[in-house]
Every structure is written in structure tokens, then in C-alpha cells.
Design brief:
about 180 residues; Jelly Rolls; two-stranded antiparallel ribbon
């Protein structure tokens, strides 16, 4: 049995939702001084199958605690250079409660993104290793080559659909709860 079929069977049996993350939908998030574009071979890689569980401690669920309450996002994690370079590039749609969490392993200076080959307008939420949101770049411009940089060292960037942060009342100082957050 293939891993995809086994994962789909397991997800149905356990009542979990199945998320197929396809590298055919890449994005780009790199320091402003580095420019990386995927090759045709990158785009043709086989999909990666991951299960999304309803537990906030799970790696593929992120919670943001704000004054308006807790907000749950089903996320994809980009924690390798290739995954961070692909990001949400070429994606045309994303569920309202979905996002991509970029993890740099520790607080880093010079974290910057651009929107090259990204048709979705996004909110980029910059987050320190302790889970504190430091800034939000709201309603980014699709396909823009203009760098969108963090003003201070951050470990994470959560990309969600444009307007979601404002709609949910997410602001700097709010907290990300996730298995990767120090003390999270």
C-alpha cells in the first residue's frame, strides 16, 4: 500500500483531516540578500502527505492567542531551505483557516520575504522564538519583488490570507502557541 493511501485510510479511521502538500505549489521566503527560484524539477517532485490533527501541540496546527480569543490555523511547516524557498509560490487559493509557518530554528536577523510568483495576497506575521508576534506585514502585494523584512530578530513567520490578521484582531504582542515555540 502506498504511503498516501495508508495515510488517507488512517485519516479516515481516526477522524483526522488529510492535507496533501504538493511541491507543485511552491513559494519564496529568503533573506533579502538571497534570491532563489525553483527549477522545473523542483515543481515536479512528488507530493508530501501529512496528517493534520486537532491538537494544538501538533506540528501542523498553530494557535494564536489574542484579545479576541484563540485562533486555530491548519498549517504547513517550511523548515528546510528548499521548503522556505518554495513557500506559497504559485498557490492560487488557500483555506481561510490555513497558513504556512516558516521556522528558522532560532531567532535570526535579516529575515525578509518577497512575493515573486505568489498570486495570493498575504498577511505575514513575524514571531520571536518565544511565540511573541513582533510585527505584521498586512495585505502584501502579489508578485512584488519588494523585500518585506522583519524589524527585529525572529524565528518564525506565519503566512495567512490577506486580511485575516485584522479580521481576527491579531496584533503585535499576541502569542503563537505551537509545538516548536520555546515553552510552547
Amino acid at each position: 500500500m502506498s504511503r498516501a493511501i495508508a495515510a488517507a485510510s488512517l485519516s479516515v479511521a481516526l477522524g483526522l483531516s488529510l492535507s496533501i502538500i504538493s511541491p507543485a505549489s511552491p513559494g519564496l521566503a529568503v533573506p533579502a540578500s538571497v534570491v532563489v527560484s525553483p527549477t522545473a524539477a523542483d515543481v515536479q517532485r512528488a507530493p508530501i502527505v501529512r496528517l493534520v490533527q486537532a491538537d494544538a501541540a501538533d506540528d501542523l496546527v498553530a494557535m494564536i492567542a489574542s484579545a479576541g480569543g484563540d485562533h486555530r490555523f491548519a498549517i504547513e511547516v517550511a523548515d528546510t531551505p528548499d521548503e522556505r524557498a518554495r513557500g506559497l509560490m504559485f498557490r492560487e487559493t488557500m483555506a481561510a483557516d490555513a497558513g504556512m509557518l516558516f521556522d528558522y530554528g532560532s531567532d535570526q536577523t535579516g529575515v525578509a520575504f518577497w512575493m515573486k510568483n505568489t498570486p495570493l495576497p498575504l498577511d505575514m506575521i513575524f514571531i520571536r522564538a518565544d511565540g511573541t508576534i513582533t510585527q505584521i506585514a498586512a495585505d502584501t502585494t502579489p508578485y512584488s519583488l519588494e523585500p518585506i523584512a522583519s524589524r527585529e530578530p525572529v524565528r518564525f513567520v506565519l503566512e495567512v490570507n490577506a486580511g485575516i490578521a485584522a479580521k481576527l484582531g491579531i496584533v503585535p504582542g499576541d502569542r503563537l502557541r505551537h509545538a516548536r515555540v520555546t515553552g510552547g
